[in-house]
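> forwarded from #structure-qc
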């Protein structure tokens, strides 16, 4: 059994502190920015990529070594220096203040792990091995990407729109469940071209209109 509880976290507008400015830090920062967090970066040296983000004012940069107290007020912390003793100090401070921390060189010390993930609009598929093999996570990701192709973004949006309409227009939960089951299990999602995708979307709405009237 895994000790990690999977969940989806909204970090938009939250202060996330990254200690360290190397390649791993850059990857973490880019992901945090993608989800619109407010990133504070603490490191004496940073990569060119991170320097670019500082110049574009995308992140707040404090050019210094980590000191105790730096984590106060953070929502999430990433200890990603190449110095295990410093990462450990960050871990201790975070634990003292009950701030969630990810420690790059120690999955077991981390409160949370960043999974490998696939995004198709609102559909997210995340894979984790509890840090035992990021390489396996990455392989599985590639396999799943082949099954859940980009077209799923639009399929999920249509499912969402139909669900919203059905909640208003189909009073019986049994009927709604039948509809959702039909849309997900019976309509074949053959969507390997835009033309086929459009045909599937049309079919989904047709199913909705016909089941609504029953
Ligand atoms: C998913 C992804 C998210 C992200 O970081 O953004 C991620 N690692 C990614 C990339 C990546 N990771 C590594 C390389 C170099 C190549 C290699 O060595 O493999 C590359 C680059 C690449 O593959 O391109 C190696 C590596 N990873 C960790 C250590 C430290 C250690 O194990 O001690 C070492 C050094 C091991 C060593 O020195 O040998 C630790 C972690 N990496 C995790 C996540 C967490 C566990 C996930 C899980 O449970 O499976 C965990 C525990 C911590 C965490 O939460 O960060 C991201 C995108 C992958 C994708 O999506 O394709
Ligand atoms: N989680 C992952 O996915 C993953 C992947 C590969 C490696 N790692 C681990 O992550 C760590 C960092 O890897 P990297 O390739 O980014 O290293 P790196 O050497 O490129 O960068 C280390 C950074 O830490 C900074 N630093 C050093 N001491 C500091 C201090 N006291 N305070 C603040 N910043 C300090 C340095 O200035 C530098 O910017 C390593 O321990 C490595 O084993 C993790």
């Amino acid at each position: 059994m895994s000790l990690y509880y999977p969940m989806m976290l909204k970090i938009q507008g939250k202060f996330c502190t990254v200690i360290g400015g190397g390649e791993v830090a850059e990857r973490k920062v880019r992901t945090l920015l993608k989800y619109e967090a407010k990133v504070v970066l603490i490191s004496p040296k940073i990569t060119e990529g991170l320097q670019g983000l500082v110049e574009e004012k995308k992140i707040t940069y404090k050019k210094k070594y980590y000191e105790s107290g730096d984590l106060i007020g953070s929502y999430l912390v990433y200890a990603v220096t190449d110095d295990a003793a410093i990462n450990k100090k960050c871990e201790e401070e975070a634990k003292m203040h009950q701030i969630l921390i990810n420690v790059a060189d120690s999955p077991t010390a981390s409160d949370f792990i960043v999974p490998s993930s696939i995004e198709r609009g609102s559909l997210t598929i995340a894979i984790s091995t509890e840090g035992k093999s990021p390489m396996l996570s990455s392989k599985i990701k590639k396999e799943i990407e082949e099954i859940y192709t980009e077209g799923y973004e639009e399929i999920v949006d249509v499912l969402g729109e139909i669900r919203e309409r059905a909640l208003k227009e189909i009073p019986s939960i049994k009927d709604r469940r039948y509809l959702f089951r039909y849309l997900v299990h019976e309509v074949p999602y053959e969507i390997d071209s835009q033309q086929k995708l459009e045909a599937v979307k049309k079919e989904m709405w047709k199913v909705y209109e016909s089941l609504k009237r029953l």
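QC bot note: The chain has a mean pLDDT of 96. The pocket of nicotinamide-adenine-dinucleotide (ligand 2) is lined by residues 19-25, 42-46, 65-66, 80-83, 86, 104-105, 134 (CB under 6 Å).
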